[in-house]
From TrEMBL:
Domain NADP-dependent oxidoreductase: 13-270
GO molecular function, one term: oxidoreductase activity
Name of the protein: Aldo keto reductase
Residues where substrate binds: H111
Lineage of the species this protein comes from: Bacteria, Bacillati, Bacillota, Bacilli, Lactobacillales
Protein source organism: Secundilactobacillus odoratitofui DSM 19909 = JCM 15043
InterPro entries: AKR, NAD(P)_OxRdtase_dom_sf, NADP_OxRdtase_dom
Length: 282
């Protein structure tokens, strides 16, 4: 299974995303079963946020991991921009930890840029590290210019990861962002790695080239899209599903190795960018 190194720890390159999970009480049992199936299949990373369902996603994750040894998990959550201040962040973090039922996060992300000065957010994230409640911090929805600005701050290069949208149909980050992160040893976390169930997602799963590659590997189109995302080093994909069988398929996609011919076919269907594009955000 392909791996990435986050904060000095090697983890499988496909984790579990939880956006939109926890919102419907009727789906809770299935969602918990899906998360547990993913962990049983080898996943370690679970990505959530205080924004997701106003905390309901974190609560759901807390129920799913209640009996899982903590050292088998790599937990990521995120702080909202309006809570990313010296006055509010500690309280926000404590609430996330309480919902998750844990003492510390492995990685705490600044969800997207807001009105709080970046230096204040970074300084508070660094301070929270000293409390032991977070082992590391990072950012999300940052583009290349944002990262360059971050790196000018005294503690900016302490960032442990950047999480952005990335999938076969949305390759804008390849123009300069991925190379910048590679140069600066900053791992990349890909959210919506099989798109977001929209028209693009439907097109991806029915594309002739995607289906050709899927047939070669006796895999689903979704598995091929995930294998494509993590075919580059130091990229973690966090697909979301509430279906246990689909979850296992997602995680085991980490075992697929795409060939040069596979990658060429996929490039022909969905070419790499030739100019800078605005950062895709959901």
């Amino acid at each position: 299974m392909q791996t990435v190194t986050l904060t000095g720890r090697q983890v499988p390159a496909i984790g579990i995303g939880t956006w939109h999970m926890g919102d419907d009480p009727l789906k809770q049992e299935a969602e918990i079963a899906a998360i547990q199936a993913g962990l049983d299949a080898g996943a370690q990373v679970i990505d959530t946020a205080e924004m997701y369902g106003s905390g309901r996603s974190e609560t759901l994750v807390g129920k799913a991991i209640k009996n899982i040894p903590r050292d088998q998990l790599y937990l990521i959550s995120k702080v909202l921009p309006n809570n990313a201040s010296k006055a509010k962040m500690s309280q926000s973090l404590d609430a996330s930890l309480k919902r998750l039922g844990v003492d510390a996060l492995d990685l705490y992300l600044y969800h997207w840029r807001g009105g709080v000065p970046l230096v204040e957010t970074v300084d508070e994230l660094e301070r929270l590290k000293t409390t032991g409640k977070i082992k590391a911090w990072g950012i999300s929805n940052f583009d290349t210019d944002d990262l360059k600005e971050l790196w000018q701050l005294p503690s900016g290069p302490m960032a442990a990861a950047n999480e952005d949208l990335y999938n076969l149909g949305s390759r804008g980050v390849e123009y300069d962002l991925l190379a910048w992160q590679t140069t600066h040893n900053l791992p990349f976390i890909a959210y919506s790695p099989v798109s977001n169930g929209d028209q693009l997602g439907a097109n991806l799963t029915t594309n002739a080239n995607v289906l050709t590659v899927a047939n070669r590997h006796h895999a689903t189109p979704y598995q091929i899209m995930l294998a494509w995302v993590i075919s580059r080093p130091q990229i973690l994909a966090i697909p979301q599903t509430s279906d246990a069988t689909h979850m296992v398929d997602n995680v085991t996609a980490g075992n697929l190795k795409l060939t040069a011919d596979d990658l060429k076919l996929l490039d022909q269907a969905y070419p790499a960018p030739t100019e800078k594009q605005p950062l895709d955000v959901l």
